[in-house]
Amino acid sequence: MTTAVLSALIRPLVEPRLPDWVEAKWFMSKEEALELAPQAEIGWFDFTQPGPMVEVVTAATNLKWLNSIYAGLDFLPLDLLARRGVTVTNGAGINAITIAEYVVMLMLAHAKGYREVVRAQDRHEWLLDSPGKRELCGERVLLLGLGAIGSLIRTRLEAFGMEVVPVRRSAQGGALGPDEWRGKLGEFDWVILAVPSTADTRYLIGETELAAMKPNAVLVNIARGDVVDQDALVAALDGKRIEAALLDVTTPEPLPADHPLWDAPNAQVTMHLSGRAQTKMFMRSADRFIDNLARWHAGEPVEPRLDPALGY
Fold it and tell me: Which of these is catalytic: 140, 241, 259, 272?
């Protein structure tokens, strides 16, 4: 028998489908997870906050496979997991559909001035003209990150008649290479960030990059807050050096109530809700976990695997 220590939140979707070679032990709290962690060969230790996950993962000294619903696991002790030889599967792609839809919503809401329409309705005011007159069709998008999320963003925006230019490790198929995109920032109307958070992507967009953008450029970040130098962004928005920033992620999270981004008229902050705007996340995660159990038992690779050295 293989001992699997799993969150009780996923129990209704997983327990009836577990193979007979798995002995499942369920936890409801951090304390229960910490008590069970040393027994775990397979662990699914998701909590809503990073702290408890770090504690439980560290305590799981016999762990061979760690599974998570979250795509970004950079907060975990990845070096420790690598030394222990733990295989890590994450939630890459689980929420790709809803995040891609969320990006389209943010862009359309900005282009059409929809926030002002909602506010006018709250005031019972009949607007005589649209507060937003921007059309997506024909505009150019620089897309940094072409993984599961970025790929879906690309197809959806192309359906609107936008020209989407991705950034890839190798410049091919119309993509820009990692050393090319900065020199072409001034050619794009929208810059979308869909990259993982790593040492290489920290402050990927800073003062220099913001200064290189068009005055009507819009920055969209659904990656991680630390991909953007937030102080430089606030200064660029305040100085109207770019048109707007649409931010589903910030640093820190939650964003402090007195942070200037809340009141910036050319910023939208959507509280890291893009991946939560759906009801199928747990179902998809359970299906993936059950499929991976069969692969694990057969000695086949489980997926998607996180590379601790890369952080994604």
Answer: 272
2-94+278-297 topology per CATH: Rossmann fold (3.40.50)
Phi, psi angles (nearest 5°) of residue 219: -95, 130
Concatenating the DSSP letter of every residue in 79-96 gives: HHHHHHT-EEE--TTTTH
pLDDT of residue 246: 98
Which member of 253, 276, 295, 303 is catalytic? 253
Q: How many CA atoms lie within 13 A of 165 on its CB side?
A: 21
Query: Is 272 one of the catalytic residues?
Result: yes
Domain boundaries, the chain: 2-94+278-297, 96-276
Tokens of 212: 């290189």
CATH architecture of 96-276: 3-Layer(aba) Sandwich (3.40)
Q: Is the pLDDT of residue 173 over 80?
A: no
Within 13 A of 12's CA, how many CA atoms are on the CB side?
3
Q: What is the dihedral of CA 254, 259, 261, 264, to 10 degrees?
A: 140
The proportion of the chain whose per-residue pLDDT surpasses 90, expressed as a percent, equals: 90
Q: Would you call 132 helix, strand, or coil by DSSP?
A: coil
pLDDT of 164: 98
Give the residue among 93, 92, 42, 100 at the shortest CA–CA distance from 71: 92
Taking the C-alpha atoms of residue 228 and residue 55, their distance in angstroms, rounded to an integer, is 28
Q: Is 115 a catalytic residue?
A: no
Query: 168, 224, 284, 288: which is the annotated catalytic residue?
Result: 224
Two tokens, residue 8 = 């009780």
Q: Mean pLDDT throughout 20-43?
A: 98
Neighbouring C-beta atoms of residue 310, cutoff 10 Å: 12
User: Is residue 142 over pLDDT 80?
Assistant: yes
**pLDDT tens for each residue of 197-225:** 888 899 999 999 999 999 999 999 999 99
